[in-house]
């Protein structure tokens, strides 16, 4: 049985429907210049399907927050939470099937991309038991899946693009159906746009965008001019969930509206010029003279900023370090290495720490070191990343001669694979069973069993490990360079 919603009407006044079940399986791409009615279309789609399927809205402008006034959506204002909390909520909404609106309005572009990536990745990595159907709407998708590099750091762009690619390319098997909207197809990554099978094309004027829209709709190039002539709120639709042939439609009305309202002309104020001058310059004479704003400083990388906050400049630090820490404890009496080990163990005891970014982990490490009465952070970010990876692999003291050979073998692998490899090597040295996928995933920073399998396959291709499985399906992993193997598990 198909479940359809009315999205609008065609040129003859007949209702146009979208099959929601088919849409969940085949995804949707919406294009239209600013003012063409994209947001109105998405709002109509969300309102009509709110009672049928769980909805997740990535909202960079705060346009859709008003849906919560009439429906059961929960608004998450991303500016009030850190990356770890956003990822936790992304995982929990899959478990509880809550419809949410992730409002990114208060964030800058780089933070919006980072936040959206963390949220989408957490949804994507949810346990299989939580793979319920969900319609994931992403407005202004060209921001999160740009076709070319922009002003944001490359690592941020890759993370955001990877999350969007997972949503559109691999999300269907996990119950995630992407419905993305963009102002310009030319600015949207092609591998993201190509995965949609349903299209709603609104008014656009640039030839390159009209040509791509015409190609997606199966229209001849000379027919592309029709896209330029579309009225506001009118779209050309095609796809298994809409129509087998291109169809023109006008989107129907919505029950809710954006908080920004419309941009219709309003009468100019009728106040006399003298009254306006009085209002504009009222009490200006009593205000203190403000200094001219200085030139905007160049942005600092997050990791560098965290390092500077956590570790003051040496001159300042030397002037402020007391010989006595206030409780009779001498600064020289603190065993820095022992404190580092204690802090790493505390962080490992927090199961969520395995899935946090390096920047957040380093910030947590800095705070914990201060709580242990260390002045400044004893490790730079690069050194901390290595020590934490070793700790996840079960090696708290890298100077111990027992681990020299193991660490030598680990250098042949990428840095992010050190922790799972060391877990395997430690199990082999101690004659313990092979770590399971969950333990290796925690060390690797993923909840996806597929990524763990690909990790092991990669290490085997590099010659670092050899995987064996008996007839009972129990796995053991050998390390040729050490001549050791784990027990079967």
Strand order of the biggest β-sheet: 2-1-11-10-9-3-8-7-4-6-5
The assigned structural class equals alpha/beta
How many distinct helices?
A: 20
Whole-number mean pLDDT:
81
Explain how this protein is built.
The protein has 20 helices and 14 strands. The chain is an alpha/beta fold and 489 residues long. The strands form two sheets. The protein has an eleven-stranded mixed sheet with strand order 2-1-11-10-9-3-8-7-4-6-5. Strands 12-13-14 form a three-stranded antiparallel sheet, covered by helices on one side. Helix 5 (109-124) packs parallel to helix 7 (154-170), helix 12 (302-310) packs parallel to helix 15 (358-371) and helix 19 crosses helix 20. The longest helix is centred in the N-terminal third of the chain and has 17 residues, at 154-170.
What order do the helices and strands come in, and which of them pair?
Blueprint: E1 4-10, E2 15-19, H1 20-26, E3 28-31, H2 38-49, E4 54-59, H3 67-70, E5 74-77, H4 83-96, E6 100-103, H5 109-124, E7 134-138, H6 141-144, H7 154-170, E8 176-182, H8 190-193, E9 198-201, H9 207-217, H10 225-228, E10 234-239, E11 243-251, H11 273-280, H12 302-310, H13 314-320, H14 336-349, H15 358-371, H16 381-392, H17 404-410, H18 418-429, H19 437-444, H20 449-461, E12 466-469, E13 475-479, E14 484-485
Parallel strand pairs: 3-8, 3-9, 4-6, 4-7, 5-6, 7-8
Antiparallel strand pairs: 1-2, 1-11, 9-10, 10-11, 12-13, 13-14
Short key terms for the protein model shown above:
alpha/beta; globular; 489 residues; 20 helices
């Amino acid at each position: 049985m198909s479940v359809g919603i009315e999205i609008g009407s065609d040129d003859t006044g007949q209702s146009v429907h979208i099959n929601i079940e088919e849409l969940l399986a085949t995804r949707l791409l919406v294009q239209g210049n600013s003012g063409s009615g994209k947001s109105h279309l998405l709002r109509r789609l969300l309102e009509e399907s709110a009672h049928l399927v769980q909805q997740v809205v990535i909202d960079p402008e705060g346009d859709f927050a008003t849906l919560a006034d009439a429906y059961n959506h929960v608004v998450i204002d991303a500016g009030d939470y850190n990356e770890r909390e956003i990822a936790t909520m992304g995982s929990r909404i899959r478990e509880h099937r809550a419809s949410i609106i992730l409002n990114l309005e208060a964030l800058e572009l780089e933070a919006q991309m980072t936040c959206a990536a963390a949220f989408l990745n957490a949804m994507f990595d949810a346990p299989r038991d939580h793979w319920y159907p969900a319609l994931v709407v992403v407005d202004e998708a060209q921001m999160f899946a740009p076709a070319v590099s922009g002003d944001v750091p490359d690592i941020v762009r890759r993370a955001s693009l990877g999350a969007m690619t997972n949503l559109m390319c691999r999300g269907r098997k996990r119950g995630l159906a992407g419905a993305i909207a963009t102002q310009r197809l030319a600015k949207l990554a092609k591998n993201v746009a190509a995965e949609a099978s349903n299209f709603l094309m609104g008014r656009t004027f640039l030839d390159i965008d009209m040509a791509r829209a015409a190609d997606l709709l199966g229209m001849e190039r000379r027919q592309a001019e029709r896209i330029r002539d579309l009225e506001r709120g009118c779209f050309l639709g095609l796809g298994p969930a809409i129509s087998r042939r291109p169809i023109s439609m006008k989107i129907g009305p919505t029950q809710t509206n954006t908080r920004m309202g419309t941009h219709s002309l309003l009468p100019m104020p009728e106040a006399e010029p003298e009254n306006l001058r009085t209002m504009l310059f009222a009490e200006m004479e009593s205000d203190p003279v403000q200094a001219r704003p200085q030139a905007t400083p160049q942005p600092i990388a997050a990791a560098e900023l965290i390092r500077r906050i956590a570790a003051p400049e040496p001159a300042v630090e030397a002037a402020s370090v007391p010989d006595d820490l206030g409780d009779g404890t001498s600064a020289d009496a603190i065993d820095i290495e022992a404190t580092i080990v204690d802090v790493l163990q505390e962080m490992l005891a927090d199961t969520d720490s395995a899935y946090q970014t390096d920047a957040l982990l380093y910030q947590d490490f800095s705070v914990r070191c201060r709580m242990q009465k260390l002045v400044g952070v004893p490790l730079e970010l690069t050194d901390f990343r290595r020590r934490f990876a070793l700790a996840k692999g079960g090696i708290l003291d890298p100077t111990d001669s027992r681990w020299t050979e193991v660490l030598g073998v680990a250098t042949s692998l990428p840095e992010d694979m050190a922790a799972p490899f060391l877990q395997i090597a430690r199990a082999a040295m101690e004659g313990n069973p092979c770590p399971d996928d969950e333990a290796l995933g925690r060390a690797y920073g993923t909840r996806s069993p597929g990524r763990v399998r690909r990790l092991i396959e990669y290490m085997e291709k590099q010659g670092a490990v050899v995987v064996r499985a008996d007839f009972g399906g129990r796995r053991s992993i050998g390390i040729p360079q050490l001549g050791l193997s784990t027990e079967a598990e």
